[in-house]
Amino acid sequence: MSTWYVVGGIIVAMVVTFFTRVIPFPLQTRLANSGFLREFSRWMPLGAMVILFVYACSTIPAGRWLPYVVALAVTMIMHWWRRNVLLSIMVGTGVCVGLSLLQVGA
């Protein structure tokens, strides 16, 4: 690999990083009262949890689904009860890891 190839890659990464950091500021005033962003921020946590759940389901070994189902139920209950995304994800993850370590459903 040539030196110029590496330098070019670094420059492209710097430019892309710079513009992804700078672009939101001029748009901030235009999007301040955006109905789309208001709805997006309302549904984003649920979307993130669905994506994480689908990914987790794709990696579940055969016959080991019980900790994941219990953790999903606990996560949903925590979220409905406390309305705190971080808390519900942390508690659900802890339940899943704890049940997996105890080999529940094996």
Describe the structure.
- The protein starts with a helix and ends in a 5-residue tail after the last helix.
- It has helices at residues 3-22, 24-31, 35-58, 66-82, 85-101.
- The protein contains five helices and no strands.
- The chain is flat.
- Helix 4 (66-82) packs antiparallel against helix 5 (85-101).
- It is mostly helical.
- Fraction in helix: over 70%
Overall domain count: 2
The tally of beta strands, per DSSP, is 0
Sequence stretches where pLDDT stays below 50 over 5 or more residues: none
Specify the overall morphology. Answer: flat
Return the average pLDDT rounded to an integer. 88
Please write the string of helix (H) and strand (E) elements: HHHHH
Radius of gyration: 21 Å
CA-CA gap between termini: 49 Å
Largest sheet: none
**What's the number of helices?**
5
Question: What structural class should be given to the helix and strand makeup?
Answer: mainly alpha
Share in β-strands: under 5%
Could you give a short description of this structure?
This protein has 106 residues and is mainly α.
Q: What are the SSEs and their pairings?
A:
Elements: H1 3-22, H2 24-31, H3 35-58, H4 66-82, H5 85-101
Helix pairs in contact: 4-5
Pfam family, one: AzlD
Protein name: Branched-chain amino acid transport protein (AzlD)
Transmembrane segments: 6-23, 43-65, 85-104
